User: What shape does this take?
Amino acid sequence: MHLRKTALLIMTFYATFAMSQTKIIAHRGYWDTKGSAQNSITALLKADSLGIYGSEFDVRVSKDSVLVINHDPGIWGHNVAHTSAKVLTSLKLKNKEPLPTLIDYFEAARPLSTKLILELKELESQEMESYAIEKILELVKEYQYEDRIEFISFSLHAIKEMVQKAPDIPTYYLKGELSPQELKEIGCTGPDYHYNVFLKNPNWIRECHELGLKVNTWTVNKEKEMKQLIELGVDFMTTDKPSLLRDLLEKTP
Ligand code: MG
Assistant: This one.
């Protein structure tokens, strides 16, 4: 009886430990709240104010080679890659804030503690992606953000180049088709895959951990999937509902 009780206590301890390990990343910042907008400075500040692990944002390159923050290839009818930074930064986001550059984002992040989860979007050419990585790494060095930044991308070219040029910065691949072993061979930190990939291949999370990889997953907005993925032991969860996930993790016994 005593042994069973002890075993139960140990199991509870490990279950609690495993669950409390899932860290929250706000997808495009904490935008789904009053006064905020996707990829805005406000969304970064609000993510930080939740005390969560990280705030994700999307990086593209303007026609005149300036790194700007925007998810889609275009905004309000302007194609980012074919528009100057002057025009782009004169455009307003949905919360009336101007479209930020990466420098604006890095400046705003100075007093914050949330990690900067930088997604480099797939750009028009590999050369453009290589240029963006070079500029990003210059800025990371200038701002001394080496320990505050993580890098994610759907572009395998970008991932491989980041791993090669900045092996100490965590790097996660987004597309979902590579196995844990293949990711290990590339040398990245791990997968950041759509949650359906993990629900179809739940063993991948364990395999990643056995290989020393970390696991992030996107974009998990419903309690049911949040609970499933916490139980599967993901290290990070990227969500449009960071306060919901935070409450859920706090309630989890
Ligand atoms: Mg993104």
Summary: DSSP finds eleven helices and eleven strands in the chain. The radius of gyration is 19 Å.
